[in-house]
Structures are given as C-alpha cells and as structure tokens.
Amino acid sequence: MKKIVSTTNAPAAIGPYSQAVIINNMVYTSGVIPINPEDGTIVEGDIKKQAERVLKSLSALLKDSGSDLTKVVKTTVFIKNMEDFPTINEVYASYFTENYPARSCVEVARLPKDVLIEVEAVAYL
Hints:
This protein is an alpha+beta fold and 125 residues long. It has a single domain (3-124), classed as CATH 3.30.1330.40. Helix content is 24%, strand content 26%. It contains 2 helices and 6 strands. A 6-stranded mixed beta sheet has the order 1-2-3-6-4-5, covered by helices on one side.
C-alpha cells in the first residue's frame, strides 16, 4: 500500500508532487532544494549554506517518514556547477558518516527557483 508523506519540517511541494512516498517499506523522496521550511524562503549564500539546508531538510523528511540518513541506500545530487563538487562532498560527509549510500551527482543547466543544489533519496524503514 502506498503512503504519502507530508511534513512541515521540510520544504513544502512547489508543484503537483508529494514530498515523499512510502511503499514496500521503502521511502522515496522528491528532490529537496534549499528552502527554509519555516518561512518558505530560499537560503541565500554559497553552495555550502545551500547544501547544509538541503541535507538538514532531507534528514527531517526521512525522520518524519519513519526512516533516517543511516537507512539511505541511494541519493541523487543535482548541482548547478561541478566546481562545487568538493564543497558538496565536505557537507555531505558531515551528514553521511559511515556505510555511505550509493550516489549519483550530475551537473544540470538549471534547478527549480535557480538554486545551486537539489538532492533526492531512497531509504528503507
């Protein structure tokens, strides 16, 4: 049975999609961008600040789904500039500290709201 996850601890959906979906004891998140869930504003600043906001929100979304970062099996990281890859890795490593999930990281031409990073994840419950 499919369960839709909705939480105020991560950015609200900005289109016709769910923040996360649970099916067969797996959580599939939508892409999370650096929006402050408290007031809906985009986090201003460099890639480090935006990456920290994204991973903090992703962690909250997983928690409210009944999972957590230690149960993530795959992430996809979309970035505006591949030159930011080392900084993103630094921030990423502070959230994923062992038994790292599989990951893809791709540079894209543009992201929603012109942010610098978007991350989606698949985790188990």
